[in-house]
Specification:
The protein is 40% helix and 11% strand. It has helices spanning 7-15, 33-37, 42-58, 70-75, 77-93, 138-142, 155-170, 193-206, 229-237, 249-260, 280-289, 311-317, 346-365, and strands at 21-24, 63-67, 97-101, 176-182, 213-217, 241-244, 266-271, 293-297.
Length: 366
């Protein structure tokens, strides 16, 4: 099927599965996604992934979301594909499927007037106390420059080649739950993301995958529809509605109510931000009750340190012109402490297990 699925088909697919629940996954020993995908340190990375995915399965998670990396694929193509296969094998061993993210604006080649230099592989540096494990560096300045993705000769063809190779190889593989083809369209490009979004969907659908194809929206929803033109286009192209929500309980409920109007299944591929009052105790029961698929951000805290706040939280907190209600006494993301010996909060894990077990019981009784 090389076109968007009908509502009947996507609901049939969705209802045939147990409640989709899991986390965005990167091993705690990875400083960034280069670490996750490169051949350097691969053997130890896979051992850690195996242990941590076994733990994820033990609390009832049945899926993970992982994000591709163009820089590694470009430099170590054969090894990259081998690492991807190993992740899928390890996940499947623990009864876990994979949502695979193919493109995200923050990883697209930048600066059309400058030569493209892929990120350096090998040992990766990280800084203590910073979300994502890195303090502001010159590379962050590059992020402010225009993105030139499928418009840049050479890189365009290579990126399409990566998409085609990955999707073609796994288009009928049951270990892939669905393809999240474009993470947060418009976060850097605004409306300029639309032609890129359309091209990525075109390339992926041309491979005729048996799994659903979707892109996640992330801005606030208002007026009964998605927040921006690029997000409206993402929903138009997607088989089901894929969204991110880091807001409190009230904001989450309003988001769900708005997105229900599209008449397709809902999956939240990023949630949990305790600093912003998006917590397990409030949000997880809602997603269970409404049978909305969900992937919290992070699992075992590690080198990426996503338990630390986003930098923008600090800036807003200290801005005298803004009254913000952030709770900096809590971790932002992640469920387990370093080494995975103990949960951040045992009550969270007890609640997650309780609703996962109830979901499986309900599914078995159907």
């Amino acid at each position: 099927m090389k076109r968007k699925w009908s509502k009947a088909k996507i609901w049939e697919w969705y209802n045939a599965r147990p409640w989709i629940r899991g986390c965005n996954f990167i091993g705690s020993d990875c400083a960034n996604r280069l670490d996750q995908w490169q051949s350097y340190g691969r053997e130890e990375r896979m051992k850690v992934a195996d242990r941590e995915l076994e733990l994820a399965a033990s609390i009832g998670f049945n899926t993970i979301r992982i994000i591709a990396d163009f820089d590694v694929w470009l430099q170590e193509r054969e090894s990259y594909m081998s690492v991807l296969e190993e992740y899928l094998t390890i996940a499947a061993k623990h009864g876990i499927s994979v949502c695979y993210v193919l493109a995200t604006e923050v990883m697209l080649p930048r600066g059309i007037d400058e030569p493209f230099v892929p990120k350096k592989l090998g040992e990766q540096q990280y800084a203590l106390g910073y979300h994502q494990g890195r303090f502001p560096v010159p590379e962050d300045e590059l992020a402010k420059k225009p993105y030139h993705y499928l418009s840049r000769d050479g890189l365009r063809e290579k990126f399409v080649e990566m998409l085609t190779e990955i999707v073609t190889k796994y288009k009928d593989d049951e270990r892939i739950l669905f393809w999240d083809v474009y993470n947060e369209p418009g976060i850097a490009l605004a409306r300029e993301a639309i032609p890129i979004l359309e091209k990525v969907f075109e390339v992926v659908r041309s491979c005729d995958p048996s799994q659903p194809v979707t892109a996640d929206i992330w801005r606030s929803v208002s007026g009964g529809h998605a927040g921006t033109p690029e997000e409206e286009r993402a929903i138009e192209l997607s088989d089901f509605v894929n969204f991110h929500c880091y807001g409190n309980l009230a904001k989450t409920v309003i988001t769900i109510d708005t997105l229900r109007k599209y008449g397709r299944p809902l999956v939240c591929t990023e949630w949990m931000n305790r600093i912003n009052h998006n917590e397990v105790k409030d949000i997880y029961p809602i997603y269970f009750l409404e049978k909305i698929g969900c992937y919290c951000w992070g699992f075992v805290v590690g080198k990426t340190q996503t338990n630390e706040p986003w930098e923008m939280f600090w800036k807003h907190y200290y801005d005298p012109n803004k009254q913000v209600d952030y709770d900096f006494t809590k971790w932002q993301h992640d469920l387990y402490r370093p080494g995975a010996r103990h949960p951040y909060d045992p009550k969270e894990i007890d609640l997650i297990k309780q609703f996962n077990e109830l979901a499986d019981k309900n599914a078995a009784e159907k």
